[in-house]
Amino acid sequence: AEKIFPTLDVYQTILQLTPKIDQIFSYDSTAAVRLQANESLEKLSESVNAMMTEFQSSITKESSKSAISGGGVHQLTRYVMNFIVFLADYSDSLATILKESSLPLPEDYFSSSGEENPGSGDRSPMAARLAWLILVLLCKIDAKSRLYNDSALSYLFLANNLHYVVTKVRTSNLRLVLGDDWVANHEVKVNQYLEKYEKMAWGDVIASLPGDSTAGTEAEESLRRFNEAFEEAYKKHKTWVVPDPNLRDEIQASIARKLMPGYTGFYKKHPVGSCNIVRFTPEDLNNYITDLYVGLGRSVPVSKTKKYMVSPSHTTDLK
What are the residue boundaries of the Exocyst complex subunit Exo70 C-terminal domain, all occurrences included (predicted)? Predict the structure, then answer.
């Protein structure tokens, strides 16, 4: 399938030279030259279509059964998206080669309303074909997510891979081909995966968070449950990865927003030493959160990087 790029180079060159060929070889005696150029374009076009079909088949037939460690970006996602990004650089040539499309794309695949909007992709057969290749990839990734025994890790895997796809589209010529609505729709899906991940992965921790009004033996019991839940979650998710630093920050910040205010309020009433089982200061908790998703052996000096100060009123509490 990689031969498609030099093939497109030849096609593009002949196509650009066609006006000059027609001009120079305009006589009946040189009609064979014009015919040969046209036949070459036709054969190259057929070859490109065949290679596109072969590339799609290679995605469908990919049969690796090993789950990616930590729920990171699958090598298939990287390979396919890099391939499609390069294809988008030949959009002018592909627009003349891919002339028909009967692909069963969802009606709302390019926009939430299913209507065509200016600046939202040209809906050409070429756009539909590239969108279809991405859809085939995402279906394959969805199937691979089932290789994980942990549902939370499965959703993190889906979020990582779809985020990678969306980033590739947003930062390349694919954005002009598929349109901003396509990007926006799939960003929503990334957030949906993250919400499901967070609910499954951190729901018990958030539910066990002690309130600042909890007191006495009830406070100790509540804090004991929180300690156990947080330490279990941290130990598990310390080995999980989010390769994209911006997405990693987003997840860490979301977790911090749900944990830090409640824990900080509790800590103000029950600082370390006042209760036998207070294990973390708010800063400790912040540091543990910022150490997540970098993968084993890639810890960062969290106490010197960033702190999730949820609001100015909590800043003095965390110092």
Answer: 2-291
Structural domain spans, the chain: 1-61, 66-111+123-196, 209-291
**CA nearest 186: which of 134, 148, 243, 147?**
134
Could you read off the pLDDT of 223-265 as tens digits, one per residue?
A: 888 888 999 999 989 999 999 999 999 999 999 999 998 888 8
pTM over 0.90, yes/no: no
Q: Which fold has domain 209-291?
A: Monooxygenase (1.20.1280)
Do 318 and 283 contact (CB within 8 A), yes or no? yes
pLDDT averaged over the chain?
84
Q: Is the pLDDT of residue 113 over 70?
A: no
Kindly report the three-state secondary structure assignment for every residue of the chain: CCCHHHHHHHHHHHHHHHHHHHHHCCCHHHHHHHHHHHHHHHHHHHHHHHHHHHHHHHHHHCCCCCCCHHHCCCHHHHHHHHHHHHHHCCHHHHHHHCCCCCCCCCCCCCCCCCCCCCCCCCCCHHHHHHHHHHHHHHHHHHHHHCCCCCHHHHHHHHHHHHHHHHHHHHCCCHHHHHCHHHHHHHHHHHHHHHHHHHHHHHHHHHHCCCCCCCCHHHHHHHHHHHHHHHHHHHHHHCCCECCCHHHHHHHHHHHHHHHHHHHHHHHHHCCECCECCCCCCHHHHHHHHHCCCECCCCCCCHHHCCCCCCCHHHHHHHC
In this structure, are residues 127 and 178 in contact, taking their beta carbons and an 8 Å threshold?
A: yes
**What is the C-alpha end-to-end distance of the chain, expressed in Å?**
57
- In the block, residue with structure tokens 């929180």: 226
- Reference 34, options 22, 42, 43, 24; nearest CA is 22
